Amino acid sequence: MTGLAVDDAAWASAWRTRSPLDKLALSAGLVVCALVLPVWPGGVLVALAAVALALGPARVPARTFGRAVRWPLAFVAVGAVPAVVSVDGGGLGWAPDAAARAGELVGHSVAGGAAVLLLATTTPMSDLLPALTRLRVPAAVVEVASVTYRLLFVLLESLRTIREAQTARMGHAGWRRSLRSSGALAAAVLTRSWDRARRLQEGLAGRGMETGLRVLPEARPSSPAFLAATGAGLAALVAVGVLGA
Predict the structure, then answer these.
(1) Cα angle vertex 58, ends 57, 62, to 5°?
(2) What b-and-e string marks burial along 133-147, b requiring 16 or more CB atoms within 10 Å of the CB?
(3) Which helix (H) or strand (E) holds 92?
(4) Exposure pattern of 85-108 as b/e (b: 16+ CB <10 Å)?
(5) Mean pLDDT for each consecutive 10-residue tract of the chain (245 residues)?
(6) Residues facing residue 92 across a β-bridge
(7) Minimal CA–CA distance to 212: which of 126, 134, 154, 138?
C-alpha cells in the first residue's frame, strides 16, 4: 500500500540519520516558497527542487515517490474544477480567467505537495513526533498523531487478513459478491477500530495514565552545513522566482 511504501522509504532513506528538525526546516521553507512565489517560475522550481532532492541525495525510489504523488494530484485536479466553473443565468460555463486560475491553483498545490512528500519520504513518524514536541506543538496533538500512527498498522493488518479470508471463500468472484464483501470488510474494520480504541483507552486508564506516552528519542544533532545549504537554496529560489515573474 502507498502509505506503507512511504514509511518504508523514509526508513531506508539516505537522510534517515539527519536531524528531523533540519528536514522540517527544509520542507517548511519549500512549502512557504510554493505558496508565496508566482507559479512561474517559482512554483515550478520548488516542485523540481523537492523531487530532485528526494530522488537524488535522499535516494527515495522514483516509483515510490511517483505512487505517493498520485492521490494528491487527483485531489488537486478535482479541487480545481469548481475554481474554473461559473454558474450564471445561462447555466454552467467557464470562468473568464479559468486557465489562469486553474494554473495557479494546480501549480501552488503541486509544489507544496512535493515539498511535504519530501519530508514524508525521508522522515519516519517515530522521528517526526519527538521533533514536534521539541517545537512545542501541543502534547494532545502529538499524542493523537502517535496513537493514530500505531493503530494504522494494526488496522491495515486486519484489512489484509479479512480480505484474504474473503478471497479464499470466493468472496470476490464477480462484481456482486465483491461489492457485498467490500461492505462487510468496511464494517468489520470499522468495528475493530472502535474496539481497539476502547481497549486502548481502558488499558491506559487502568494504569493511571494521566500524562503522555514517554519515549526516549534518538538524539540527532542539527547540521550547520545542511542548514546553511538550505538557507542558500531557499534564497536562490526566492530570487529566481521574484526576478523571473
Answers:
(1) 105
(2) beeeeeeeebeeebb
(3) strand 91-94
(4) eeeeeeeeeeeeeeeeebbbbbbb
(5) 73 88 92 89 90 91 86 81 70 68 82 91 85 81 79 79 82 80 84 79 69 64 89 91 76
(6) 87
(7) 138
Could you tell me how far CA 54 lies from the centroid of its own chain? 14
Q: CA–CA distance from 169 to each of 172, 181, 229 (Å)? A: 8, 10, 57
**Reported pTM:** 0.77
What residue type is 201 in one-letter code? Q
Give the pLDDT score at 76.
83
Per-residue model confidence (pLDDT) at position 245: 63
Contact in structure between 66 and 6 (CB atoms under 8 Å): no
> Between vectors from CA 197 to CA 157 and to CA 143, what angle results, nearest 5°?
100
- The dihedral over CA atoms of 194, 120, 1, 72, expressed in degrees to the nearest 10, equals 90
Contact at 8 Å (CB) between 35 and 108? yes
Query: What local confidence, expressed as pLDDT, does residue 228 receive?
Result: 93
- Quick one: cell of 91? 447555466
